[in-house]
C-alpha cells in the first residue's frame, strides 16, 4: 500500500524536480531577486540548467545500469526533454530580451562569434532529438537508427561545454568542472560499451 | 602631443603649486574641521561625507544604491556579480595608507583620512559603462586625480600614471585563485589623469565608499570602460613608461590600454553598440566616449580610434 503510494508520487516528484529551476526563476522574479541585471541572470541561469540537464540525461543510462536504479530509465526521455526546454528558453531569452529580436544584430552575432555559432549549432542538433522523442515517431523508427541518432547528445554536451569555455571572461573554473563531468560520462559510456563486446569475444 | 592637456609640467613651476597647496591646507585647517570627513576612528560602515555639488554632473536618473552596491565586478572578492557584496566585508578599509611615488618631487605615503581632509570633496554624477555592455548612473564623491598629482610635483619626465590595488588574500578571498595576476593594475596617460573629469572617489551617495565599490579610494574615469576604474588603491606611481594593466595582461586581444568607450569597436565576443542601463528593459545606444566626447575627444586626436578600445 505504502509502496503503491510511493510509486504514484514518483512521477510527479520527478516532474517537480525538473521544473523547480524554472519555477525558482519565476519566484525570484515576483520577489525582485533576479539581481540588478535580470536579463543577464535569467539568460545565464537557463543556459546553466540546459547544460546540467544534458549531463543528467547522459548520467541516467549509466546510473540505471551501474548504480542499479533501473526505474530511472522511465524518466530519461522526460529529463532529456527538459534539457531541450531549458536550452530553448535560454535561446528565447537571448533572442527576445538580450537582443530585442534585432535580427540583423542576431545574425551578425551568430556569424561572428564562435561561442554563439556553437551554441546555435548545438540547439539545432537538439531539435531532431526532441522530435524523435515523441512515442509515435519513435515507434516508426528502427531502434538501431533511433539509438544512433540519440548518441548525438554526447556531441551536443561537448558543444555546450565548448560554448561555455569560449564565453567566460577570465574564470574558467566552472567550464572546467562541466568539461570534467562530460568527459567522465563519455568515458564511462565508452568503457561500458567496450566491456560486453570484449566479454563476447572472449566467450 | 602626448601631454598636450597636462598643465604645469615644467619642474620649476611645480614648487609654486606645492606652496599653494600647503597654504590652502593651512587655511582649510584654520577654517575649522568643516572638511574633516571621517578622521580618527575607523568607520566600520558608511559614514557621511561633506562635499559640494559639481557642474560636471549629468542630469540622468541615478541607479538605486542597492543596485550600485549589489551588482559589482570586483574579482578580488570572487567572479560572480554578487560576490563583492557578500565577501567585501572581509576587507579592512581603515586604517589605509596610499603611496604616491615615482617621477615626482614629493613622493610619500598618506593615510586615507588625511588625504580626504586635504582635498575639497565634490559630488560627480557620472555615467558608468561596463565593458560587458551594461551601465549605471552613479553619484560619486571625490576629488580630481589632478589635484593629488599636482600636489606631489610631477617631473616633466612623467608621462603615465600607474595604479595598484591592495593584494592580501586574507582580506580578499578572490585572490586565492589566480584568475588575474594580482595585484590588479591599471594605468592612464598623464594627460588623461590630469583631465578634470578624472576622479578619485572616496564616497558614493554622500557616504564613504562601501567596500564592494572599492573602499576606501578608487579611480573613476567616466569615458572609459569600468575595468579602468581600479578599486581599493594602495599605490599611485608616476612613470615614463606605459604601465601594464591587468585585463590587457590577461587577454591582450580583448582589452586595450585605453579602454575608451566606443560603440563602433566590438569586444571580440559581443557588440558594444548598445548597453543595458541597469533598471531599464530596453537597451540604449552607447555613446562615443560614453557621452563625454566634448571633454576628452581632443586627447586622442591623431590616434587610430580602433586602437582605443
Ligand atoms: C545546447 C545548447 C546550449 C547550452 C548547453 C548553453 C549553455 C550555456 C551556459 C552554461 C552558459 C553560461 C552560464 C553562466 O555563465 O553561468 C551560457 C551562456 C550564454 N549562452 Fe548558451 N547554451 C546553449 C545554447 C545557446 C544558444 C543557442 C545561444 C544563442 C544563440 C546561446 C547564447 C548564450 C549567451 C549570449 C550566453 C551569455 C553570455 C554572457 O553572459 O556573457 N546559448 N550558455
TrEMBL record, chain A:
Q: Which GO terms describe its biological process?
A: protein repair
- So what does this one do? Part of the MsrPQ system that repairs oxidized periplasmic proteins containing methionine sulfoxide residues (Met-O), using respiratory chain electrons. Thus protects these proteins from oxidative-stress damage caused by reactive species of oxygen and chlorine generated by the host defense mechanisms. MsrPQ is essential for the maintenance of envelope integrity under bleach stress, rescuing a wide series of structurally unrelated periplasmic proteins from methionine oxidation.
So which cofactors does this thing need?
A: heme b; FMN
**Lineage per the UniProt record:** Bacteria, Pseudomonadati, Pseudomonadota, Alphaproteobacteria, Sphingomonadales
HAMAP family, sorted = MsrQ
Q: Which residues cross the membrane?
A: 12-29, 49-67, 79-97, 117-137, 149-166, 172-192
Its subunit composition reads: Heterodimer of a catalytic subunit (MsrP) and a heme-binding subunit (MsrQ).
Q: Name one GO cellular component term.
A: plasma membrane
Where is the protein localized?
A: Cell membrane; Membrane
MF terms (GO), sorted A to Z: electron transfer activity; FMN binding; heme binding; metal ion binding; oxidoreductase activity, acting on diphenols and related substances as donors
InterPro entries named in the record? Fe3_Rdtase_TM_dom, MsrQ-like
Question: Which UniProt keywords are present, listed alphabetically?
Answer: Cell membrane, Electron transport, Flavoprotein, FMN, Heme, Iron, Membrane, Metal-binding, Transmembrane, Transmembrane helix, Transport
Keyword Heme recorded: yes
Q: Which family does it belong to?
A: Belongs to the MsrQ family.
Q: How does it sit in the membrane?
A: Multi-pass membrane protein
Provide the Ferric oxidoreductase domain boundaries: 46-161
One Pfam family in the UniProt entry: Ferric_reduct
Q: Which domain of life is it from?
A: Bacteria
- What this protein is called in its record is Protein-methionine-sulfoxide reductase heme-binding subunit MsrQ
Decide whether keyword Iron is in the record.
yes
Q: How is the cofactor bound?
A: Binds 1 heme b (iron(II)-protoporphyrin IX) group per subunit. Binds 1 FMN per subunit.
From TrEMBL, chain B:
Q: How does it assemble?
A: Heterodimer of a catalytic subunit (MsrP) and a heme-binding subunit (MsrQ).
Under the heading Pfam families, the entry gives: Oxidored_molyb
EC number of the protein:
1.8.5.-
One GO molecular function term? oxidoreductase activity, acting on a sulfur group of donors, quinone or similar compound as acceptor
What does the UniProt cofactor note say? Binds 1 Mo-molybdopterin (Mo-MPT) cofactor per subunit.
Cofactors needed by this protein, per the record, are:
Mo-molybdopterin
Determine if Oxidoreductase is one of this entry's keywords.
Answer: yes
Binding residues for Mo-molybdopterin: 72, 75-76, 130, 165, 213, 218, 229-231
Catalysed conversion reaction: L-methionyl-[protein] + a quinone + H2O = L-methionyl-(R)-S-oxide-[protein] + a quinol; L-methionyl-[protein] + a quinone + H2O = L-methionyl-(S)-S-oxide-[protein] + a quinol
- Gene3D superfamilies in UniProt: Oxidoreductase, molybdopterin-binding domain (3.90.420.10)
- Annotated Oxidoreductase molybdopterin-binding domain ranges read 93-247
- Name assigned to this protein: Protein-methionine-sulfoxide reductase catalytic subunit MsrP
Please name the HAMAP family in this protein's record: MsrP
Sorted alphabetically, the keyword list is: Metal-binding, Molybdenum, Oxidoreductase, Signal
Q: Which family does it belong to?
A: Belongs to the MsrP family.
Question: Which SUPFAM superfamilies does this UniProt record tie to the protein?
Answer: Oxidoreductase molybdopterin-binding domain
As for what it does, the entry says: Part of the MsrPQ system that repairs oxidized periplasmic proteins containing methionine sulfoxide residues (Met-O), using respiratory chain electrons. Thus protects these proteins from oxidative-stress damage caused by reactive species of oxygen and chlorine generated by the host defense mechanisms. MsrPQ is essential for the maintenance of envelope integrity under bleach stress, rescuing a wide series of structurally unrelated periplasmic proteins from methionine oxidation.
Top-level taxon of the source organism: Bacteria
Q: How is it modified after translation?
A: Predicted to be exported by the Tat system. The position of the signal peptide cleavage has not been experimentally proven.
Q: Which GO terms describe its biological process?
A: protein repair
**Enzyme class, one word?**
oxidoreductase
